[in-house]
Structures are given as structure tokens and as C-alpha cells.
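Sanity check

After download, print the first record. It should look like this:
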Amino acid sequence: VYEVVFAKVMPADASPSVANAAAGLVGLLSLFVAAPGFVVLDVTRVEPFEWPTEGVWAWLALNAGLALVFNVCLLLCVACLSPLTTSVGCMVTIPLSVLVDFLWHSLEPGWGDAVGAVLVAGGFALLVFEPPSKWSCFCRVWRCWRCCRRSVAVT
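Expected C-alpha cells:
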């Protein structure tokens, strides 16, 4: 829903700065929506609030940074491609997480993991490898990327 609404509201020729502004607005909205929930959970003692320990702050900062990068990239992908391509691209992270679990934690993937990975990868391949007449989408991504590089180099 989030991606489709963004794609409908965003102008067709929007710059990456518009996507960044939208990501900032999403973060601001999340702050105002989530903060009252913390207070309610603390007052009702359902989930008492405690400040994180010193060692946890670095992990929270890393998590916040990765979430920021993900949300900005998500909106840029929706702006340059489509909500469908972006959603299916996000699903590719599922087989990648199975691979990381195997390599990092030595967790053996089951047959369901393998079938799911093949289905997700196959769906993504069918979506990405469209006939050449549909490759204008790639050109839009290339223009967005070049525009982002220029705006970063200028600042």
C-alpha cells in the first residue's frame, strides 16, 4: 500500500530529492504515531520503558541507519521503476537471508527454502527480463542514479 500510494502521488518527472523528502515525511509521521504508543504501553505497564544499555546504543544506531538507507532506496526504486518491481525486488532478500544464515550461522536450508528461493528468483527474473521494448524503465533508473551522483558531488 505504501509503495502504491507513493507512486500515485509522486509526479512522473520527480527528482531523487522528492523521494528523500517523502522518506523524511514518513519518518516524521512515524515519530508522531509511534511515540504516543510508547507512553501508553509504559503507563499501563504492559511494556515498561527502560533506556537501553550502553552496548545496545551502537546496534540501535546501526539499525536506524540501515532503515534510513532502506526507506530512501525503496522510494527511489518506486520513483524510478514501479511498485511491483520494487516489491518483488524486496522479496529477493528472503533467499539472501537464507544464504546468509547458511554461510554465517551454518544453518542448513530445507527443501522449502530451496523451492521458495527458486520461485522468488524466477518471479524476479520474469519481471526484470522483459522484452527490449520495456527497457525504458532501465533508462529511468540510470538517469536517477546519475542525478543522485551529481547532487552528491555538488553538495
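If your output differs, re-run the checksum step. Summary of this record's structure: The mean pLDDT is 79.
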